[in-house]
């Protein structure tokens, strides 16, 4: 049985897998040899994901509604737990497309709507998926992916800068609070817009594509030198194809889990 098909091999969960960046994260994980549970709304984008990676035995899809609150997140966590495969990592790529316009021209309720759509779902997901990660007998990672201009105002997209800044603070708080659970929480801060099929005609040369962002996010699983950082800036250096797969790391983890279970039964 191949490693990717082994139900005991820890896998990675991707929230927002049907989005552009989520697509790139899924591709980078499969490229690195990780089993992937791709979570997203049923529809054309998830169908396209399944079709693109049709020959990848390590990919599994879970169609689920968008996370809005604790109830949605709790339902998702239960669905994941029922599948029986241990998790080694969660990648959260959730958010709504930015809408242009000055904040001063919008009612105050608009910013509240953006926070409810682009920030609160991340907190709800973390509240229920971090404990799930902590149940495993292995080191675990929770990677948030943040958008551009969170450290300075984005002209015409001020609401995205405000919600992005809030995401950075959320990541720092979760990084500290999840330490006791044995889970490393980090935010990959992508300080440039991501080049997508929709904006490619106007994209600048330095804009990363989704796979480059995905590779950088996946690199956080093995970059021990960055373990203490809650915020990790995106870098093209981390977007190169992997030199080795994650399979060896997963195999070591699998043996560790098996050993822990043997020990547990022996001491029972």
Automatic annotation (TrEMBL):
Family: Belongs to the short-chain dehydrogenases/reductases (SDR) family.
Record's keyword annotation contains Oxidoreductase: yes
Segment forming the signal sequence: none
Pfam families: adh_short
Organism: Pseudoxanthomonas mexicana
Keyword Transcription: no
Assigned keywords, A-Z: Oxidoreductase
GO MF annotation terms: oxidoreductase activity
Protein name in the entry: SDR family oxidoreductase
């Amino acid at each position: 049985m191949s490693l990717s098909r082994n139900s005991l091999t820890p896998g990675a969960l991707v929230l927002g897998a049907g989005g552009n960046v989520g697509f790139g994260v899924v591709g980078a994980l499969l490229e690195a040899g990780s089993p992937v549970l791709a979570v997203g709304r049923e529809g054309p984008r998830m169908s396209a994901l399944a079709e693109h990676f049709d020959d990848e035995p390590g990919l599994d899809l879970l169609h689920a509604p968008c996370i809005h609150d604790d109830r949605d997140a709790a339902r998702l966590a239960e669905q994941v737990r029922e599948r029986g495969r241990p998790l080694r990592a969660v990648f959260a790529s959730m958010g709504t497309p930015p809408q242009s316009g000055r904040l001063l021209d919008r009612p105050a309720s608009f910013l509240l709507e953006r926070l409810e759509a682009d920030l609160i779902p991340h907190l709800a997901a973390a509240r229920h998926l971090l404990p799930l990660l902590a149940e495993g007998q292995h080191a675990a990672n929770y990677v948030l992916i943040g958008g551009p201009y969170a450290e300075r105002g984005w002209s015409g997209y001020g609401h995205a800068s405000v919600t992005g800044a809030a995401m950075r603070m959320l990541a720092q708080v979760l990084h500290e609070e999840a330490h006791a659970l044995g889970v490393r929480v980090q935010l990959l801060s992508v300080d440039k817009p991501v080049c997508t099929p929709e904006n490619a005609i106007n994209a600048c040369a330095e804009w990363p594509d989704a796979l480059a962002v995905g590779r950088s996010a996946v690199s956080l699983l093995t970059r021990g030198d960055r373990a203490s950082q809650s915020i990790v800036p995106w870098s093209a250096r981390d977007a190169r194809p992997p030199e080795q797969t994650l399979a060896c790391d997963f195999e070591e983890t699998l043996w560790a889990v098996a050993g822990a279970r043997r020990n547990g039964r022996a001491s029972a």
